[in-house]
Structure formats: C-alpha cells, structure tokens
User: Fold this.
Amino acid sequence: MHLIVGKTTLLKELNVLQGVVEKKSTIPILSNLLMEAINGELLIKGTDLDVSISTRCDAEIKQEGSICVQAKKLFEIVRSLPDAEIEIKRGENDQVNLVCERARFKLLGLSKDNFPEIKEFDGPFAPIPSDLVRTFIARTIFAITNEESRYALNGAKMEFSAKGIRMVATDGHRLSFIEKQSDMGDLSLDVLVPKKTLTELSRLCVESGGPVEVGPGDNHLYFRVEKRLLTSRTLSGQFPNYELVLPKENNNKVVVESLRVASAVRRVALMADERSHAIRFDINDGQINITSQSSEIGEAGETLPIEYSGPAITAGFNAQYLLDFFSVIQEGEVALEFKDGNSQAQLRSKGDEEYDFRYVIMPMRL
Assistant:
C-alpha cells in the first residue's frame, strides 16, 4: 500500500471515526482502523462490533493494499502535522510509514485479516431529512437509561410507517416521545436503536448537513450520510408499552415561559438533596411555588405568576429530569399538564407545531 493524501481531507474522516472505535478493549484490533487503498481512493473503517462507520477520501493511490493502524495514535499524528500532503506507505512486517514535509513517523500495523468483517447492505435506502433526524435524537437520547442491565432500554424505539416517524426513549422514571406525520412511502420499520448509534448518527448529520438515508437489514440498521455509512446492530428485548404511559386525563394545564421556569428550577435545585435532586411544585390560583430543602444544606424557593384556576396540586420531581427537557426546548412557552400530584405529569412545547413532542415524568414522594 502506497498513497498520498491531503492532511485536511484525512483528518476530517479520522475525526468522524474516533467515536466508534473502542479506546480500551479486550480485543486489541478494535482500537484500530482498517485503511484500504483501492479504486483510486482511501477507504477507512472502524468498529466496536456493534456499531461501525465506513468512509472514504480522495487520494493519489500509487499502490493498492490495506493495513490496520491504531486509531487514536494515527489521529493524534495527523492532527499534529502541517497542512500539507501526507505520504503513507506500508513497509516490512506490517509497518506503516508516514511522511509529511520534514516529519516522519513509523507505526506498527496489523494485517487486514485480523479486522472484523463489517456487514454490507445491498437493499434500497429511504431518505430522511437530516434536521429531522437531529431533532428526534436530541429530544429522546437524554431519556435513555444508563443501566446496562436494562438491555431493552439502552436505546430508543424507532418506528417508520406510511403515516410518519416516531421515536420513544425511557429509563423507567421518565419517557420522551416525538412524532412527525410524514409520507415515508413503503418504508416500514420498528426497531430498538442503541444509544451509541444515535450519538454517532447525530454527529454525522452535523458534520455533513446532507440527507440521511436509512436501510433496514437482518438485526442491523444502516444509515448513509453522503459518503459515510453507519452500520449498527439493533437491540433485542421487549420495549415497554409506552402508549399505556402517555397520560389521557391530564386536564389541569399550566402554561409557562420555558426560560423563566427553567431558570427557577435551576436555582432552586442548588439546595436540593444531592442524591434525589428532589424539588417541590405547589400550584395554586395564579402562581407556582417551587421549593427544595436539604437537611445538610438548607432550603430555597421561588414563585412564578401563572394563569391557573384549577385545583391545588402539589408534586415532587427530579430537578435534573426537568432540566433535561428544558435544555432541548430552550425558549417559547411550555405546557405542564397534570391529573393530580400523584400521577405522571406531561410536558409539551407550545411552539412545536411541526412535531408532536411529549415528555412524561413520574412524580417523586416528598
């Protein structure tokens, strides 16, 4: 293998691949990238066995071939080089030589035979706007559980049908639901997508800005974003029946300005118990009183004026769960919908006419 490639071109693709490569793995090859010089371009692949990214960049190929190179070290080297062309050549004993102007590096490589095979997809892809994908991921990914033992909740449920697209995520304490009515043609899909896949897909959308194409496979899902292909295993297991969780009788509604209530929650949460993050909402005629207290620190409170004439409601919530919701809404009016203080509350963004976005949060015992 012998090629010449521009520093900027190569660095951009290496940066895309860093998130998917295992930093500390019991399988050494998974911390490597597979580089293949073929058909007038450089193909680069990285995988952790569950999630893979394949990409390519223009290069002057002097001799076709392949080699596996330590991903993090290669990225650090290329990033440090001057903005000039890099000559990459495979030497004896799988050694990789890099030359850029006066800089020279020798890296120990591995044969392509050691690298895991990445599944290919030869079926048709269906296009989805990248801004829709980014919005859906941003409004669900924070609700995915961090408990690895709850395998079916380690990702988001993604549904495509003739009516539109829907994504749902939950950790058992809160649930985030988003839907958009859209003609998806013949695409029909109901899968559980791992959190890492969603993180990398969002990064690819931000990097390119181009359309996303999705292709369903056998226990795999394929996302093509311009010249990059993200391949992911889908999660198995039974996702909860989320439609039973979505409230049907939350008729007591409070409409508040998002930034005002988020700022109040953030301030009051400073005095909340560090383990539970519990804050209290007291909703009465014309006001919400938000309070917190800790036996070890002290207490805090803030009152917001509102238009409300329903029954008095007292409910406790995890402040961080509320702030996660407000961080993706950021501005505009938000509707807080209650049945009573002991049932799940539902939060909606009033400005979201394009999407049906709902956030359901379970109350805490005070």
